[in-house]
Automatic annotation (TrEMBL), chain A:
<keyword id="KW-0547">Nucleotide-binding</keyword>
<dbReference type="GO" id="GO:0005886">
    <property type="term" value="C:plasma membrane"/>
</dbReference>
<comment type="subunit">
    <text>The GTP bound form of RAB15 interacts with REP15. Interacts (GTP-bound form) with MICAL1, MICAL3, MICALCL, EHBP1 and EHBP1L1.</text>
</comment>
<keyword id="KW-0636">Prenylation</keyword>
<dbReference type="InterPro" id="IPR041826">
    <property type="entry name" value="Rab15"/>
</dbReference>
<dbReference type="Pfam" id="PF00071">
    <property type="entry name" value="Ras"/>
</dbReference>
<dbReference type="InterPro" id="IPR027417">
    <property type="entry name" value="P-loop_NTPase"/>
</dbReference>
<comment type="function">
    <text>The small GTPases Rab are key regulators of intracellular membrane trafficking, from the formation of transport vesicles to their fusion with membranes. Rabs cycle between an inactive GDP-bound form and an active GTP-bound form that is able to recruit to membranes different sets of downstream effectors directly responsible for vesicle formation, movement, tethering and fusion. RAB15 may act in concert with RAB3A in regulating aspects of synaptic vesicle membrane flow within the nerve terminal.</text>
</comment>
<dbReference type="GO" id="GO:0003925">
    <property type="term" value="F:G protein activity"/>
</dbReference>
TrEMBL record, chain B:
<dbReference type="Pfam" id="PF16776">
    <property type="entry name" value="INPP5B_PH"/>
</dbReference>
<dbReference type="Pfam" id="PF00620">
    <property type="entry name" value="RhoGAP"/>
</dbReference>
<dbReference type="GO" id="GO:0004439">
    <property type="term" value="F:phosphatidylinositol-4,5-bisphosphate 5-phosphatase activity"/>
</dbReference>
<dbReference type="InterPro" id="IPR008936">
    <property type="entry name" value="Rho_GTPase_activation_prot"/>
</dbReference>
<protein>
    <recommendedName>
        <fullName>phosphoinositide 5-phosphatase</fullName>
        <ecNumber>3.1.3.36</ecNumber>
    </recommendedName>
</protein>
<keyword id="KW-0378">Hydrolase</keyword>
<dbReference type="InterPro" id="IPR048869">
    <property type="entry name" value="OCRL-1_2_ASH"/>
</dbReference>
<dbReference type="Pfam" id="PF21310">
    <property type="entry name" value="OCRL-like_ASH"/>
</dbReference>
<dbReference type="GO" id="GO:0046488">
    <property type="term" value="P:phosphatidylinositol metabolic process"/>
</dbReference>
Length: 213, 848
């Protein structure tokens, strides 16, 4: 039997504290939902295998602390990502306003060809809605991003959102992938490639041990 | 059969450059026959070659390496490879590039006529090396001879001049294999899981396998094999046809080269069931032992992983006059191995035959697609079909008795004297194999061309030499018979039709199972990400004071499923993992799963960290990043407040403060610190001449310690220092608490903590240069900023007072110069001993 996956890359969840980044991740990877909010203080990650166009894609999804005081640190993780979810809470106008700030941070700190996707979470909380779907669409258009309203609670659009971003990252890196595949590499580790100029030396050395494999 | 390392000669090696290309050109029919050779077209400039590579992992590896090499060339196009090393071989070469037509293939459905090049090899190589494997199935005989030699290890490679070349091939192959990334662990896990849940996504479907074995005694085919191969009403799905003693000539034995291969293959293909079309998947031969495997065309697409191997057990236990050939393949989801063996002859040699069987089982190994996998042995297959001239005889009966039982068709009784039956019953051989009931007369030995028992002098006892056994689940034998009609040989052919339940994959179930497995492995992997729980995420240090140690404890509990390694890591643009006034102890370590480690956060403000905290430019605030190797990062917040102190404040700032420092608003302190460098800044109020804290300490000592024995030489108490510090920072008492020695030490610590020493750094070099000149020294001091000059003169005056009492306090100029010069005159960099001497010399001028 041939190899089970071909590509590994890293996606990052960004957005204000409490918009549901961790819940999105839990729903996507473990199909679980925990309603109580425990702030992520740090950077957490989980692995997931997807199949896109017959290519087995392993994604490492990083869940970051949303609280403002940690942002100087979390920004430093941006450049190690290939794709970013900008998440707001449709019941929080404020979290939506902050997307602009998150997006500009991404422009400043993330690699140039990073792919972004806008996510309005908690779509099930219709009664408390403060941000109209049209507003989300408009903002996404302005930034040239795709847009999804999701609900980690009802599992609405979760897989679609993650798969879409993975597809986009795959497409954005298609040229490199083809080149690498030509050279007969068994697996293409985009994450590790980016790591060479990485922020934290120790992560680079960890990766080279092939720990995600 | 295709290209081997020996078939390529150096002069034909094509440099891999930009105008080089390798394209797979197998025709659709060939692609349908999985296991067929891979045809590739190599083109370079005007030149074009067509090669056949044998099916399997070796060829895949080769092609991927070629592609890799090609893409490397594409990346660095600056220099074309010049192949200089090749030139030293050039003297051996002759002509090249002769175009030749391949011999006409036997079966048009099997092979395609293809054009190719043939190269005359260098004169020093024996035989004809043909790159042409055009008719791989019908076989170019010479080619076959060489490749088979390879597999037998018979060739005297050492004699050849191309030893260098072949050995270099070997090393480079190894290097390539070692360079292959080792990402197999996860794949293997998935493979294992898939195997375990095979029942979920497979179902059984019956297929008919025709097995035939025929010892032809070196004869050429003289009659149609129709009666043997075509004895079933419906066309079987597979044909596995085995021959022994195909060619008894010396040439066949020594060179593994025989025209009979083609003749018998042709005879077989002509006698296959006419109601179906068959594709030849594989043919394998070792001297006279040959196995041909045909499959109905429509099943060809479901055959994969075809490999063939041979093992010689003849002369010296290695030669090919006896032994086995074998083909393994995967059909749908079942792994099947067909073995055709010719075991040792002679009645008494049954133990030798048992040994041959064991040797074949252990020595016959198939390479796997994944080079990291161990080779497959016969017994690792779901279905094993074993045919051949096993050569077991009938013992303990006279020829006449045997013949009588045969004529009575009492095969059951006769079978009890069969060596193979007895050996199987004793579990000495073919353990786990099944043989159907024998309802046909012995197949050996007849007078050639007749049905008469051997009439020669030896008058051999008839025996069931030719047998068909099988091992595996879901196998039903439909028939097991001999074919008396064929008279070409002294043996009769035997056939069996087996109905075998083959595991077929239900694609939907497979997809579901596969996804489930991947999901579970993802889950497992996520659960194995190192993880800890932290007793606290936020730590607060309240009222931290100068040189006061405070500690808080963080407990890390490893709640993950794996041991983990933790470490506090630096944030970007910072050289340490935390601020200088903080340490984490330990800052890295290891926690077994379920284990706990306590980490102490220790805050301690010393003279290097105090100035900025006093002035409010720095706060007790930090975020630490606790990293788990291969795992998460945790952020830990540190907060707190620092009580400003005269310790670590500048002389200038302190001269502005008429109130205790801790009574001052933070804002005022910051403003003062910002202005401190600026001497010209006009203050609304006249500043103090010297810091009041300094005055309080010196005045205290002047009043009560002039005669104190060993003053400035005995240490004070730390606890008393804390009280003195608090006293200075919070009030203006009339006298200071603590012993004289403690006050003296508090004074020294005060001078030591000054961010800018009494003689500022900028004057330091000047002081060194004029240290021997008293008036120069005085001149320098006169140039100091006003408050620094005041402090200097005040201290010098106090020390001179002390020296007046040297009889009691036992001080002298040297002692005081040594102590105070190092505090008053500090080097902005590192001070060496000579400089130290100069600072003391400088200061001595003011003590006289």
């Amino acid at each position: 039997m041939a190899k089970q996956y071909d590509v590994l890359f890293r996606l990052l969840l960004l957005g204000d504290s409490g918009v549901g980044k961790t819940c999105l991740l839990c729903r996507f990877t473990d199909n679980e939902f925990h309603p109580s909010h425990i702030s992520t203080i740090g950077v957490d990650f989980k692995m997931k295998t997807l199949e896109i166009d017959g290519i087995k894609v392993r994604i490492q999804i990083w869940d970051t602390a949303g609280q403002e005081r940690y942002q100087t640190i979390t920004k430093q993780y941006y450049r190690r990502a290939q794709g970013i979810f900008l998440v707001y809470d449709i019941t929080s106008e404020r979290s939506f306003q902050h997307i602009m700030k998150w997006a500009s941070d991404v422009d400043e700190y993330a690699p140039e060809k990073i792919r972004k996707i806008l996510v309005g979470n908690k779509s099930d909380e219709v009664d408390k809605r403060q941000v109209a779907t049209e507003q989300g669409i408009k903002l996404a258009n302005a930034y040239g991003m795709d847009f999804f309203e999701t609900s980690a609670f009802t599992n609405h659009n979760i897989t679609e959102t993650f798969t879409r971003l993975a597809e986009q990252v795959l497409a954005a890196n298609k040229k490199d992938l083809d080149l690498l595949r030509m050279s007969g590499n068994e697996e293409i580790n985009l994450a590790a490639l980016e790591e060479e100029e990485g922020l934290y030396e120790r992560v680079a050395s960890d990766e080279s041990k092939g720990c995600w494999c | 059969m295709a290209i081997t390392a020996d078939d390529v000669s150096l002069e034909d090696i094509i440099p891999i450059s930009l105008d080089f290309a390798v394209v797979e050109v197998s025709s659709p029919e060939e692609l349908a026959v999985v296991g067929a050779d891979t045809r590739v077209r190599v083109s370079h400039q005007e030149e074009e070659l067509e090669l056949r590579l044998p099916f399997g992992s070796h060829s895949r590896l080769f092609l991927s390496e070629v592609n890799r090499a090609w893409s490397d060339v594409c990346k660095s196009t600056t220099q074309a490879p010049r192949f200089e090393w090749i030139s030293k071989y050039h003297k051996n070469t002759r002509g090249q590039g002769v175009v030749k037509q391949a011999p006409s293939p036997l079966d048009s459905t099997l092979t395609q006529l293809n054009e190719h090049k043939k190269t005359e090899k260098p004169s020093d190589q024996k035989g004809s090396l043909e790159r042409d494997k055009g008719s791989s199935n019908s076989g170019t005989q010479k080619t076959r001879a060489y490749s088979s030699q390879e597999s037998q290890g018979l060739s005297s490679r050492e004699d050849r001049d191309d030893l260098v070349r072949s050995s270099s091939h070997t090393t480079s192959n190894k290097a390539q294999i070692l360079a292959m990334p080792q990402f197999g662990l996860r794949d293997n896990l998935i493979k294992c899981e898939l195997m375990k849940s095979e029942d979920i996504y497979t179902y059984l479907q019956n297929f008919s396998f025709f097995l035939g074995t025929y010892n032809v005694n070196g004869q050429t085919p003289k009659e149609s094999l129709f009666p043997w191969l075509n004895c079933t009403s419906d066309p079987p799905d597979m044909y596995c046809v085995g021959f022994q003693e195909l060619d008894l000539s010396k040439e066949a034995f020594f060179f593994n080269d025989t025209p009979k291969e083609l003749e018998w293959t042709k005879a077989v293909s002509e006698a296959l069931h006419p109601d179906a079309k068959y594709a030849l998947v594989k043919l394998v031969r070792l001297v006279g032992i040959m196995l041909i495997f045909y499959v109905k065309n429509e099943h060809a697409a479901f055959i994969s992983d075809v490999e063939a191997e041979t093992v010689g057990t003849g002369i010296m236990g290695r030669m090919g006059n006896k032994g086995a050939v074998s083909i393994r393949f995967r059909f749908h989801n079942s792994d099947i191995c067909v073995v055709n063996s010719h075991l040792a002859a002679h009645i008494e040699e049954y133990e030798r035959r048992n040994q041959d069987y064991k040797d074949i089982c252990s020595r016959l190994q198939f390479r796997q697609l994944d080079p990291n996998q161990p080779p497959l042995t016969i017994m690792k297959h779901d279905v094993i079909l074993w045919i051949g001239d096993l050569n077991y005889r009938i013992t303990e009966l006279e020829v006449s008795n045997v013949k009588e039982l045969i004529s009575n068709k009492d095969f059951e009784t006769l079978h009890n004297y069969d060596q193979l039956k007895r050996q199987i019953d004793e579990e000495a051989v073919f353990v786990g194999f099944v043989e159907g009931d024998i309802d046909f007369q012995p197949t050996y030995k007849y007078d050639t061309g007749s049905d008469l028992w051997d009439t020669s002098e030896k008058c051999r006892v008839p025996a069931w030499c030719d047998r068909i056994l099988y091992r595996g689940k879901n196998i039903v034998q439909k028939h097991y018979q001999s074919h008396m009609a064929l008279k070409t040989s002294d043996h009769k052919p035997v056939s069996s039709l087996l109905q075998i339940g083959i595991k077929r994959v239900n694609p939907d179930d497979y997809k579901r199972t596969f996804e489930e497995i991947v999901r579970n492995i993802d889950k497992m992997e996520n659960e194995c990400i190192p993880s800890v729980t932290l007793s606290k995420r936020e730590f607060h240090f309240t009222d931290l004071k100068y040189m006061q140690h405070q500690a808080e404890t963080l407990s890390l509990f490893n709640d993950g499923q794996v041991p983990c390694q933790f470490e506090f890591i630096q944030k970007p643009n910072e050289s340490t993992y935390c601020k200088a006034w903080l340490t984490a102890n330990p800052s890295k370590g290891f926690i077994a799963n379920g284990g706990t480690v306590d980490i102490d956060f220790e805050a301690f403000v010393n003279r290097s960290t105090a100035p900025e905290l006093n002035s409010g430019q720095e706060q007790i605030e930090d975020i630490l990043v606790l990293h788990l190797e291969r795992g998460k990062d945790y952020f830990i917040s540190i907060s707190g407040n620092y009580l400003p102190s005269c310790y670590g404040s500048s002389i200038h700032s302190l001269c502005q403060l008429k109130e205790p420092i801790q009574d001052m608003p933070q804002e005022t302190l910051r403003e003062m610190a910002e202005k401190s460098g600026d001497e010209n800044a006009e203050n609304t109020e006249k500043p103090l001449d010297i810091p009041k804290e300094l005055w309080m300490m010196v005045d205290h000592l002047f009043r009560s310690a002039l005669k104190q024995e060993d003053i400035f030489q005995q240490p004070g108490l730390r606890s008393e220092f804390a009280v003195i510090r608090d006293c200075l920072d919070t009030g203006i008492p009339d006298s200071l608490p603590g012993s004289n020695h403690s006050v003296a030490e508090a004074l020294l610590l005060f001078l030591d903590a000054l961010p800018q020493p009494v003689v500022p750094f900028s004057f330091y070099q000047q002081c060194l240069e004029s240290c021997s000149n008293a008036s120069q020294c005085e001149k320098i001091i006169s140039m100091l900023p006003q408050c620094h000059k005041n402090v200097f003169n005040y201290l010098a005056a106090f020390l001179r007072e002390l020296l007046k009492n040297s009889a009691s306090n036992r001080l002298d100029v040297n002692i005081l110069a040594t102590i105070f010069a190092s505090l008053l005159l500090k080097s902005p960099t590192k001070q060496d001993f000579a400089e130290k001497r100069k600072t003391q010399e400088f200061f001595q001028h003011f003590l006289a």
